[in-house]
TrEMBL record:
GO terms for biological process: starch catabolic process. GO terms for molecular function: carbohydrate phosphatase activity; starch binding. This is J domain-containing protein. It comes from the Eukaryota. GO terms for cellular component: chloroplast.
């Protein structure tokens, strides 16, 4: 059985999500159900922010409110998927 990368597992969790907004807790549960390593939720939110807001002048993640990027709209999810696939070269 092929080992899946964290990116692939995260994409699977995103693909399984059908609602208009993606919640970080939903993605976290999907990820840890497939790979119980316990990734840090703040790290997931920060990575989501970095991928969704690809702007060199963006506000530092550490300055954002605690609830920032707990929800991801469909258009942001699609943008993140495109950027992740671009990083992988697929």
């Amino acid at each position: 059985m092929k080992k899946r990368s964290s990116v692939e597992i995260a994409e699977m969790g995103l693909a399984e999500q059908k609602s208009k907004f993606m919640k970080v807790n939903t993605a976290y549960k999907a990820l840890t159900s497939k790979r119980p390593c316990g990734p840090n939720k703040d790290a997931i939110r920060a990575a989501t922010y970095d991928l969704a807001k690809n702007d060199p002048w963006k506000e530092p993640f550490e300055n954002l409110p605690e609830h920032a990027f707990e929800d991801v709209a469909d258009w942001e999810r699609k943008l993140i998927q495109e950027r992740v696939r671009g990083l992988r070269g697929t």
